[in-house]
Amino acid sequence: MFSKDRWDEIIEALSRNWFRTALTAFGVLWGIFILVVLLAAGKGLENGVKKDFGGIATNTMFMWTQGISKPYKGLPKGRRFNYDLDDVAAIKQNIPELRFVSPRNQLGGFGGANNVVRGLNSGAFNVYGDYPEFIEQQPMNITSGRFMNYGDIQEKRKVAIIGEGVRNALYENGEEAIGTYIKINGVNFMLVGTYAKVASEGDSEENQKEIYVPFTAFSQAFNMGNRVGWMAVTAKDGYSITALKSEVFDIIKTRHTIHPEDDRAIGNFDLYEQYQKVDGLFIALKVVAYFVGILVLLSGIIGISNIMLIVVKERTKEIGIRRALGASPWSIRGQILMESVFLTIISGMVGISLGAALIYVLNAILDANGPVEMFANPSVDLGTVITALFILIFSGLLAGFIPAQNAIKVKPIDALRTE
Questions:
Q1: Contacts for 171-176 with beta carbons within 8 Å, 24 or more apart?
Q2: Which segments of 54-112 are extended strands (E)?
Q3: Are 255 and 87 in contact (CB under 8 A)?
Q4: Which among 201, 202, 206 has a CA at the least distance from the CA of 163?
């Protein structure tokens, strides 16, 4: 129940020696400020590093073929093999936990010979033969037109989706691109869409210089037949591609007569495994931030506990009079605890406010000067603020517990004799 007299007494007790109170409160302020800043910095680093994944579905593995390193069933080591569409079908049929199994083929590349021509303009670009679901595995923003669909796959339509970097290289500013034709290695493809890919800063320019065409049209135009260059394999939600990839490899080894223990024959990059390592690193950083922040906060709590002991000593006669007039031990204890919690929360909230102000200024600087590599949008969420509030309340109770216990031990007759 709210008591104006009690709160007036708390304010009067804490402001009686305001300089001493302010110095004591600074320890708590600084501790919670350090905690908020460390958590925000860790979040900024996490955002920057995870941005390097470029929006790719993280539960994904990319796999390709390599030289076979062990002889098996009369076949020599060192031979090469290729994936085919039957491999894709077998993987989909035997492992229902997989969401996508996307066969891919690739042509050309940055730094190579010019392989794409449009009028008098030309350039060297990566050209990919893909299926429509690949946009789910590596999200991209379609800026005009559309992405490929299964009608394109079934009818082997020679259509293309180009990045904004390709558009800038092959078309004039403001020129309509949709519906026009580009030549890829001498084969005409009609442009049906443009995209801007979500990607890491270091690779963003190159990632906008890619061209996507239907897998079937790619195979037909460039004489790939049934061959598959590599695959992007994504597990369903609730399943780990890291746990499933051995099953995928076993199917490939069986179909291509590869020794069961020949792990070098299939190259792979497990994005989920790498993502888990990064995620684990930032969980550890968050734990360290809490540990350091709470240690600094603890020094402030010790200071508040000491000042409350002094306050109790200075008010010994007052406490004795209140006890003599019938005040219960819980009333005395509650008074001291409320003063301690009040001082802790006020100083802590000032620390949170200063931390939030610093984060706001830092984000404003980042927005004004452009993105910084491996650091983006430092912030703390509402859950962190609520956690900090509970830490403050607990800390205030902890700081006031010993002084409160000392206060209720004061005997009225002894307190009245104190000068």
A1: 171/118, 171/121
A2: 60-65, 83-84, 98-107
A3: yes
A4: 206
Mean pLDDT of 386-396: 77
What token pair was written down for 65?
A: 């073929």
Chain length of the chain: 419
Q: Is 0.85 surpassed by the pTM of this model?
A: no
Residue 243 neighbours by CB distance under 10 Å: 11
pLDDT at 273: 87
Reading the block at residue 298, the tokens are 């603890």
Q: CA–CA separation, 265 vs 252, rounded Å? A: 10
- The answer for residues whose C-beta is within 8 angstroms of residue 369's C-beta and 6 or more apart is none
Q: For strand 159-163 and strand 187-197, is the pairing parallel, antiparallel, or unpaired?
A: parallel
Q: At what angle do helices 271-314 and 382-408 cross, to 10 degrees?
A: 30
Condensed to tens digits (0 to 9), the pLDDT of residues 153-193 reads 999 999 999 998 899 999 988 889 999 999 999 999 999 99
Residues 214, 159: contact at Cβ < 8 Å? yes
Q: Contact 61/272 with Cβ under 8 angstroms?
A: yes
Spatial CB neighbours of 345, under 8 Å, sequence gap ≥ 6: 389, 392, 393, 396
DSSP helix, strand, coil percent of the chain (3-state; round to 5): 55, 20, 25
Measure the CA–CA gap between 382 and 182, rounded to whole angstroms: 51
Q: What whole-number distance in Å separates Cα of residue 97 and Cα of residue 99?
A: 7
Measured CA to CA, the distance from residue 160 to residue 263 in angstroms comes to: 36
Kindly state the average pLDDT of the residues 112-136.
87
Cβ-count burial 341-363 (b if 16+ within 10 Å, e if not): bbbbbbbbbbbbebbbeebeebb
| Alpha carbon distances (Å) from 418 to 206, 243, 319, 402, 412 | 81, 74, 11, 21, 10
The owner of tokens 């009079």 is 321
**Does residue 311 register a pLDDT over 80?**
no
Give every CB contact of residue 248 below 8 A, 6+ residues apart in sequence.
61, 63, 91, 95, 98, 233
Element (H, E) at 116: strand 116-118
pLDDT at 314: 64
- How far apart are the C-alpha atoms of 333 and 397, rounded to whole Å? 11
Q: How far apart are CA 109 and CA 12, in angstroms?
A: 75
Contact between 157 and 218 (Cβ < 8 Å): no
Residues 6+ apart with CB under 8 A from 87: 228, 231, 251, 252, 255
Here the tokens at position 402 are 């010993």
Distance CA 30, CA 32 (A): 6
